[in-house]
């Protein structure tokens, strides 16, 4: 890496990219082996699990998942075929499509969560102490908010301390 790229901001940014890529590369196959759910499917289930009973608009879900609208549509279609989610078009707004969990999807998310939490601890959490985890949550919230993202869940976790926030969302 050239000296011109060794600024503190670039090193921190590139370090985050590397951590994310390497951690997901290790977590995703293990999660699927343990639960039968691809990581992308679990992410959809988790995004929908705490939402409104009518579900979440597909465009909002795509934004949360960091995929294109078309990518979210294809992902949800595969999950719908598996019986984990359903798409709803409300009669009062035929332009909107919502995704929501089925009973099978809610059960799959609840059943897979312990495996994911264990993997996150094995591959990520055990390398950091509580102060590191708290700082990382605060930093993540600060950066996401600076981009205009809705990150209330992360802000609350950062303010409350990670363990308390995790217990509150369980």
Structural overview:
The chain is mainly alpha-helical. It has one domain (3-127): Arc Repressor Mutant, subunit A. It is 68% helix and 6% strand. It is built from eight helices and three strands. It has helices spanning 8-35, 39-49, 58-65, 69-81, 103-123, 130-146, 152-160, 162-169, and strands at residues 56-57, 85-88, 98-101. The chain has a three-stranded antiparallel beta sheet with strand order 1-3-2. Helix 1 crosses helix 5 (103-123), helix 2 packs across helix 5 and helix 7 (152-160) packs across helix 8. The longest helix has 28 residues, at 8-35. The termini are far apart.
Q: Number of folding domains?
A: 1
Assign the CATH topology.
Answer: Arc Repressor Mutant, subunit A
Characterize the biggest β-sheet: 3 strands, antiparallel
The total of beta strands comes to 3
Mean pLDDT: 86
At the first level of CATH, the class is: Mainly Alpha
Helix-residue proportion: 55-70%
Shape field: globular
How many helix segments? 8
Task: Summarize, please.
The protein is mainly α.
Secondary structure layout plus pairing:
Layout (H helix, E strand, L loop, with lengths): L7 H28 L3 H11 L6 E2 H8 L3 H13 L3 E4 L9 E4 L1 H21 L6 H17 L5 H9 L1 H8 L1
Antiparallel strand pairs: 1-3, 2-3
Helix pairs in contact: 1-5, 2-5, 3-4, 6-7, 7-8
